[in-house]
C-alpha cells in the first residue's frame, strides 16, 4: 500500500481512538448510564390502583457511575431525590463490581489515548521499536476493546443480575417498597459499546494498511532452501 494511504489510515485510526477516549471520559461523569421507572408497590396496593391510576405511583430514575436521581411517586406527586454512590450507596450495591467498572473505564481512556498517540506516530514518523510498530498498535487496540467489553459485561450484570435499580429505589425507604417498572441503558452505556467497536475497527485498519497480524508465523523458507541445496 502506498505511504500516503497508510498515513491516511493511521490518521483515521488515531482520530477515532482520541474521540473514543474523550467520549469515554465524558461518559464517566454523566448520569446517563441507566434510565427507567419505578413503581411504588406499597401505595398501589393500598388503593388497589390499576389502569390509568397506576401512573400516579410510577416515578423515574436515572443514574451513572457516581451519582443519580430518582423521583418517587406514591400518589401525592413527585418527590425528587439526589443520591451519590460514594459513600451513600456503598453498603447496598455490589461495590467490587462497581469499582471495577470505574477502573476499567479509566484504563480504557488511558489506552485509547496511548493508542491514538502511537497511531499518529506511525502516520508521521518511522517506527523504531516493536511497541511503536504494528504489534504495539494491535496491542493497544486489543486492550481498549477488551476493557470496553468488560465494562459492558460488568455493568450489565450489576444492573440486571444484582437489581441495582431496585436497590437504589429502596434506599432509605422504610415504609414504601419500590419495584422496577422499566429500565433501559442510556447514552453513556452505548458510548462504551461504540468505542469497543471502533477499537476493533482500528485493528482492521492496521491489517488493511498491509501489516500482518502479530504472532503470525512467516512462511518457512527452510524447506525451499533445503530443496535448492539438494540440487547442487
Automatic annotation (TrEMBL):
Top-rank taxon: Eukaryota
Alphabetized InterPro entries for the sequence: Clarin
Subcellular location: Membrane
Keyword Secreted: no
GO CC terms, sorted: membrane
Coiled coil location: none
Transmembrane recorded as keyword: yes
Keywords, in A-Z order: Membrane, Transmembrane, Transmembrane helix
Gene Ontology biological process terms from the UniProt entry: equilibrioception; sensory perception of sound
Segments crossing the lipid bilayer: 97-123, 135-155, 189-209
Record's bilayer topology term: Multi-pass membrane protein
A Pfam cross-reference name: Clarin-2
Family statement: Belongs to the clarin family.
Protein name, as recorded: CLRN1 protein
UniProt source species: Peucedramus taeniatus (Olive warbler)
